[in-house]
Amino acid sequence: MGTMKLRLGMIGGGQGAFIGAVHRIAARMDDEYTLVCGAFSSDAEKSKEMGLILQLDAARVYETYHQLLESESRLPPNERVQVISIVTPNHLHFEPAKLALENGFHVILDKPATFSLFEAVRLKEICRESGKLLCLTHTYTGYPMVKEARQIVAGGKLGEIRKIYAEYPQGWLSRFEEGSGNNKQAAWRTDPSRSGIAGAMGDIGTHAFNLVEYVSGLQVTKLCADINTVVKGRKLDDDGAVLLKFSNGSSGVLIASQIVTGEENNVKIRVYGEQGGLEWQQSDANTLKLMMIDEPVQILRTGSAYLSSYASHNTRTPAGHPEGYLEAFANLYRNFAQTIKALLANEEPSPEHLDFPGVDEGVRGMAFIESVIRSGQSDVKWSEFSLKYEDN
Question: 53, 90, 142, 135: which is closest to 326 by C-alpha?
Answer without folding.
Answer: 142
